[in-house]
Design a protein that fits this description.
The chain is mainly alpha-helical. The protein is 68% helix and 4% strand.
Length: 105
């Protein structure tokens, strides 16, 4: 395993043409991500305060569900992350700090 990978041991799933738990979870995660994006757009375009509040409640619900599905997949080892190198983080921080300084001038 790559030393820059952050992951858990994989939970095995059956191979073959049939869908398995990992396939269903991937599909659910993709759908929830798309729904969160769409609700974010709807929130920015809602002209009615009540409608905006309802969209916000639904957005929060789907965002929480998306995070929960991701956490389950990560715990099962079906999703991995890559560690960022410290110098890359520092370089990005410096770049953003300079941009902020330039905006303040």
């Amino acid at each position: 395993m790559n030393s820059n990978q952050i992951s858990n041991p994989k939970t095995s799933v059956p191979n073959g043409k049939s869908l398995n738990d990992k396939d269903y979870m991937n599909s659910l995660l993709s759908t929830l991500k798309e729904m969160v994006k769409n609700y974010a757009i709807a929130l920015t375009e809602a002209s009615n305060e009540n409608l905006c509040n309802q969209y916000k409640e639904m957005f929060d619900t789907y965002l929480d569900l998306q995070r929960e599905v991701f956490e389950i997949m990560f715990r099962k080892g079906w999703y991995s992350l890559e560690k960022a190198e410290a110098n890359k983080i520092n370089n990005k921080y410096q770049m953003l700090k300079e941009e902020l300084t330039n905006l303040s001038e």
